[in-house]
Design brief:
Blueprint lengths: L2 H31 L7 H11 L4 H23 L8 H39 L2 H7 L4 H39 L4 H11 L2 H27 L4 H33 L3
Length: 261
């Protein structure tokens, strides 16, 4: 194997380990600093509105049509066996366990995660973070801690809303487009879907929200090189967060199945 290739692989591995080491340390600091004074509750409310409320319209529209598409595709298969009334259960389980948390997290990444990286990155290259340190203000507590906690809460709440809106989308398509009996639709939803499905999705949502916030803030906090560096950090934040969401989704699902949770 050529020496240059080995060097490239080694550098990539070192950079990978270095990034996740920094991620662990800054995540730990962000979590701990939330319990130290001063408590700036206005920052939490502001970021919760920015991440949660402002992301709600796009997530609602996406979830409605996602539920509709699931119902549409499921009907084609179930109609052959005269089992159309089971569509509701499929839509509810699919949205609750997988699609609602993943879609919500990915959309928050695209909208809010990129903004976090860009905003903190701009503050970094313009030396505003250095100014905070000069004023004895901890930049991690001031900039990162509120974003981490509020993103976890926001993605969890958005996932719950996505569950409801997605189910409504499936209901509209099934009942009003394919004339599925609404009573059977609702009854088999209650039979097939359980509250555990919702709880599993909310656990995933909390993990995804934590990953999005910490990764995006870390890339912003590590920005170098002026405006070009801000753009690169924003792109890396979105890509890395998206991959982390999908990988962690598989791992969480595997663990839940392994322990029959």
């Amino acid at each position: 194997m050529p020496v240059g290739l080995l060097e490239t692989i080694g550098r990539k591995v070192i950079n990978f380990l270095e990034f996740w080491g920094k991620w662990f340390l800054i995540s730990l600091r962000a979590l701990i600093l939330a319990f130290k004074r001063p408590f700036r509750f206005k920052h939490y409310i502001f970021h919760l509105a920015n991440v949660g409320a402002d992301s709600l319209p796009v997530i609602a529209v996406t979830s409605f049509f996602t539920g509709g598409v699931i119902a549409l595709e499921t009907y084609v298969a179930f109609h052959r066996f005269n089992a159309e009334y089971m569509i509701g259960g499929v839509v509810a389980i699919s949205m609750a366990r997988e699609l609602a948390p993943v879609l919500s997290a990915l959309l928050v990444t695209a909208r809010a995660g990129s903004a976090m990286a860009a905003e903190i990155g701009t503050m970094k290259v313009t030396e505003q973070i250095d100014a905070l340190e000069m004023m004895a203000v901890n930049p991690v507590k001031y900039l990162i801690t509120p974003r981490v906690y509020t993103t976890v809460v926001a993605v969890t709440l958005l996932t719950l809303i996505s569950d409801i809106v997605g189910y409504i989308g499936g209901y509209v398509v099934s009942v009003y487009l394919f004339d599925v009996n609404k009573t059977l639709y609702m009854r088999y939803t209650e039979t097939l879907a359980e509250m555990d499905d919702v709880y599993h999705g909310l656990i995933k949502a909390a993990v995804f929200g934590f990953l999005v916030a910490t990764i995006s803030c870390l890339y912003g906090y590590s920005t170098k090189g002026g405006a070009k560096g801000v753009g690169e950090s924003t792109t890396k934040a979105v890509v890395t967060s998206s991959i982390a969401i999908l990988v962690s989704d598989y791992l969480i699902t595997y663990v839940m199945r392994l322990f029959d949770l």
